[in-house]
Amino acid sequence: MTGIGFDLLATDGRARRGRVTTAHGTIETPAFMPVGTAATVKAMTTDAVASTGAEILLGNTYHLMLRPTAERVAQLGGLHRFMNWDKPILTDSGGFQVMSLSDLRTMSEEGVTFKSHLDGSRHHLTPERSIQIQHMLDSNVTMCLDECTPFPATEAQAESSMRLSMRWARRSKDAFVERPGYGLFGIVQGGIYPEQRAESVAALTDIGFDGYAIGGLAVGEGQETMFRVLDFTEPLMVKDRPRYLMGVGRPSDLIGAVRRGVDMFDCVMPTRSGRTGQAFVRRGTINIRNARHAHDERPLDADCGCPTCRSYGRGYLHHLFKADEMLGPMLLTWHNLHYYQDLMRTMRQAIADGNFEEVAGTMEARLTEGDV
Ligand SMILES: CNc1nc2cc(C(=O)NN)ccc2[nH]1
After folding, report:
1. Angle at CA of residue 139, ends 47 and 351, nearest 5°
2. With a cut of 0.90, is the ipTM above it?
3. Residue 128 has what pLDDT?
4. Residue 94: is its pLDDT beyond 90?
């Protein structure tokens, strides 16, 4: 196997059931990737993450290049060894974080220069450097360095930004070291504009990648617009390679995007909001800090089999958050990641069974029931 393998196992409408094969194991798709920003999925051990059913994690190049540096991670055996995760890892290119976290950024044809949000030190990221860093991290899935076009953007701005990203995609591909079980994904840009998205898909397909991400979404455009962009972009994409929708999303986003042919997702929602006391459940969301949970001995979700729901009541979880006890964020993170994996597992089974629309429709209806 050169690069990353992908088998399309079943389809149901535009929804797809597949399997990605890497040097560190396989990933059943549709798949959700927990975000492990600084070589840790916050508040979780890697064993706990594996117990939720996650088969692949996301690492952030921006954070790791600043601290502890890619050289240090390589010296300590690569990201798998460093963080004790022996399954697949996808790393992003750093581009999105540079634009959203760093200070004093200057963009040029060459790359992006920025100051670290940690200590103000200056750094330079080019397609070549980003690919090299991801190689040093021993990432199974490397992402091209691109520019995530801001929202809103005029069509001319989206076109110019996308074309820069396509030139960087070519440079990323030229810098990538091919290894069996390791792959490089291109990233489709083009804003909300059909012609720009089509040009980007064609440019990336012509270069040739192991998988294709859809970038530039979940940047404030709203769910309806995001789905509309998927509706005219996904049909243009090759069917024999994974599609990865970056930064998405809430449960209703995941259901709608799987329905539209997306295979892979990453999002900080289950982990970040878990740490703030927000639990995702089959009937919507619960903010455990709300006083109405103080005396409630029920679990977060009666249909959930996670360690949190098996052993702890809402009243206890409410107490942990009010007392600012670290077990609170741990237990809610664990529940949310488990729930997200249950959601993906349910969708995988429904596509294989040929009843995706019925199952998805039922889940979407329950999500709006509220009063959880
Ligand atoms: C949370 N929303 C969100 N949108 C993203 C878009 C990109 C992208 O276009 N990278 N090239 C990356 C991460 C994202 N996260």
Report:
1. 70
2. yes
3. 98
4. yes
Q: What is the mean pLDDT of residues 334-360?
A: 98
Q: Is the dihedral of CA 110, 115, 118, 121 positive or negative?
A: positive
User: Is the distance from the beta carbon of residue 146 to the nearest atom of ligand 1 less than 6 Å?
Assistant: yes
Backbone angles phi, psi at 337, to 5 degrees: -65, -35
Tell whether the model's pLDDT for residue 1 goes beyond 60.
Answer: no
Residue 331: CB atoms within 10 A of its CB come to 26
In the predicted model, what is the mean pLDDT of residues 278-295? Answer: 98
Contacts of 111 (CB under 8 A, 6+ apart): 124, 125, 126, 127, 129, 145
Cβ atoms 31, 267 nearer than 8 A: no
> What is the spatial distance between Cα 64 and Cα 36, in angstroms, rounded to a whole number?
11
Region for 335 from its dihedrals, namely left if φ exceeds 0, alpha if ψ lies in -120 to 50, beta otherwise:
alpha
Please state the atom number of ligand 1 nearest to the C-alpha of residue 144. Answer: 11
Active site residue 266: yes
343 CB within 6 A, ligand 1: no
Sign of CA dihedral 296, 300, 306, 307: negative
